[in-house]
Amino acid sequence: MIMLKQGRATLPKLLSGVTHQTSALQLRRLLAICKRATWREWLNRRHKSETSNSNSTLTLENTFKCYDLETGPPLDVELSREDALSMYTKMVEVRRLEIIAAEFYKQKKIRGFCHLYNGQEAVAVGMTSVMRKTDTVITAYRCHAWTYLMGVSMYALLAELLGVRTGCSRGKGGSMHMYADNYYGGNGIVGAQVPMGAGIALAHRYKDDDGVCIVCYGDGAANQGQIFEAYNMAKLWCLPCIFVCENNEYGMGTETSRASANTDFYMRGQYIPGLWVDGNQVLAVRSATQFAIDFAQSNGPIVLEMFTYRYMGHSMSDPGTSYRTRDEVQNVRETRDPITNFRNQVVRLCLASEEELKQIDDNVKKQVGLDAKKALQDREVDEHELTADVYAKNVEPKIRGVSGYNLEHRQVTEVCLGKPKPTPAKDMKDVPVGDAALLAAQAGKMKKDGKKTDEAADGDKTKPSDGDKTKPADGDKTKTPTKKGEGEESQSNAKVPPAKGETKAAGTPPVTWSPGQSYSCSSAIRKNSSLTTAEKSTRYITVFTTQSRATWLRRRTKVT
């Protein structure tokens, strides 16, 4: 007897019960059950429960082209239900984010530049799906998707686009300057991020952290000379770097064949292996990225060309219709759209139903709308914050315990053994420093020597001959102190060295120095007979604001 209760019978069991003895009435009842909507829904739920935890295998076709590679990524890829729903959700979120951003820009709520990622979602989602915690990313100005996928919340990203203080860059970065952990942001200068990415890869190699740097740039930047310089350095030092050219077929308003003599961007590395990837198939991107990460860890750099398409113009100021037709864009939407194609694959592999995917679409639309509404209510950046966080302090390490960012113009002459320090000048702008101080000291000495010579000539006062060592010439103001307290004037002046055989006079006041004499005080103290040998040991501390390490080292602390 065939059981007709749909809740207890399965389709194979019903069909196995059909024999040549089955009556026509029973067959009609069986067909009626199969046609009922409730029966189809039950089968769908039953099938879903049986396949939710299983992996499906899919063969990729016409998705890879290799250059200077012995083997390429595997064509047979496995996809679980969890991964499928995760990647689909992220692509829908990125698409919805860009739709909201376009609406806000048209409403003049987003100002400045705004470059949208519509149509290229599979590239960012596929690559980040297999990245590890140690891997890093740096990209150009079309960076909204990368920013979100690297950890910035949808709310913080929208707030940054709106220029409010709750944005991920406190409302001052805008569309092109957002950052996160292991994400070195969007960069506004075309192609400038590529050498920086090579430097990040060098840091991975230096720290030996097993990380790989993914460097993204567009086909419009592929002709930049600095990119080829980065190629050379990465290959020379065998850096773990993946150069990713997101070829969306147009550099601003110029089609690639009109700007590039060679449009096979994955071959541009010459001595670096390359791989062409269908960038509109998220599974192909994921497989190629996993292959590239494994390759870069042991073999050095590799170039990936992600062949994709952007639906919008270069930026919001570009309608995107002056250099291509609307039919071209519509044809890509119908045949190569990354979200639509992946949606069909997921349903065909029975990893999810149409109803589930539709529910994901509705939930994403609702959540992004709530985040956008919340961001619109936030306060804009205050005026006093406009200049904050512009310059970073203490970027360079300390040199001899001193940071170049904390240096001040200051001159100090310290006499050891408890001698008083000179009073610093009130206005340090008038104090010569560095080479200027040396020149000033020399000029002052020459001037004083010249004045003495003139005075001697006017009074016909000549110095004694070399043989006359017993008595100074008449008029010589220098006196040899013989008793305590005598010769204080000459000792305080300390401009002329004492004659040989003279002894130190007690009670002589300490020498004081005017500003700018730090470089000449050594000779002055040496000539002062009131100081002992130990007291003549001096230390000079001259601190300058430096612009380079070499300048600072030349003017560093000296011990004489």
From TrEMBL:
One of its GO terms (biological process) is pyruvate decarboxylation to acetyl-CoA. Keywords: Oxidoreductase, Pyruvate, Thiamine pyrophosphate, Transit peptide. Residues 451-487 have a biased composition (Basic and acidic residues). Residues 90-379 form the Dehydrogenase E1 component domain. CDD domains: TPP_E1_PDC_ADC_BCADC. Its EC number is 1.2.4.1. It catalyses: N(6)-[(R)-lipoyl]-L-lysyl-[protein] + pyruvate + H(+) = N(6)-[(R)-S(8)-acetyldihydrolipoyl]-L-lysyl-[protein] + CO2. InterPro entries: DH_E1 (IPR001017), PDH_E1_Alpha_Subunit (IPR050642), Pyrv_DH_E1_asu_subgrp-y (IPR017597), THDP-binding (IPR029061). GO terms for molecular function: pyruvate dehydrogenase (acetyl-transferring) activity. Residues 514-536 have a biased composition (Polar residues). Residues 442-536 are annotated as: Disordered. It holds the Pfam family E1_dh. Its cofactor is thiamine diphosphate. Signal peptide: none annotated. The pyruvate dehydrogenase complex catalyzes the overall conversion of pyruvate to acetyl-CoA and CO(2). This is Pyruvate dehydrogenase E1 component subunit alpha. It comes from Drosophila willistoni. The lineage of its organism: Eukaryota, Metazoa, Ecdysozoa, Arthropoda, Hexapoda. The gene is Dwil\GK25307.
